[in-house]
Amino acid sequence: MNVNEDVKRRRTQAERRAATRRALLDAARALFAEKGYHGTAAEEIVRRAGLTRGALYHHFEDKKDLFRVVVDEMESEIDEEIEKAERAEARLPEAVMAGYRAFVDAVLDPEMKRTFFLDGPSVLGWEWREIDARHAVGKIEEGLDALIAEGYIEPQPVGPLARLINGALLEAAFFVAASDDPEAARDEAWGAMERLVGGLMRRRSPAQR
């Protein structure tokens, strides 16, 4: 076998492994949304994916490990929606708030609500908050640094403030997820969030005075 053939063979094997992993994740995500984590058996996942239990345990430690990856991917999708919402606003304060709003709005999606916001904390416990913090806290800190730099917020340490804001956003999402009327709950929670974060903001930055 020449070098080119060996490279091609290894690439094909890697592509097959990636396709198998993707099939397991897609099947698991669909079933978790339909039946919840606890209502979904590993056998159902491999059957939906058209694979074997051996394939599942080759790529993941167990069903919980598979769920962990699904949750992390969902958080990445929320990140994309946040960035899209931020880009749609011209002014920095509105962009920051639009990003926060996009996170709270994510719970209105039934799949996100069940898998990410309800089953996620229940199944993964504190690890779920660590996953969320890994995605969210640094981004919130960046926004706060920018607001401080442009004079919209008084200079202060952003680390604790970012974690407090992230905690408030999580509680707003949980409030919506627990409601029988999610849209009304979202409006209530968002109104409270606007008042909370708005209290930090100056009406105008010094540069605008």
Automatic annotation (TrEMBL):
Keyword DNA-binding: yes
Protein name: TetR/AcrR family transcriptional regulator
InterPro entries on file: Homeodomain-like_sf (IPR009057), HTH-type_TetR-like_transc_reg (IPR050109), HTH_TetR (IPR001647), Rv0078-like_C (IPR049484)
SUPFAM superfamilies documented for this protein: Homeodomain-like
Assigned keywords, A-Z: DNA-binding, Transcription, Transcription regulation
An example Gene Ontology molecular-function term: DNA-binding transcription factor activity
Domain called HTH tetR-type: residue spans: 18-78
UniProt cross-references to Pfam families, sorted A to Z: TetR_C_41 (PF21351), TetR_N (PF00440)
DNA-binding region per Swiss-Prot/TrEMBL record: 41-60
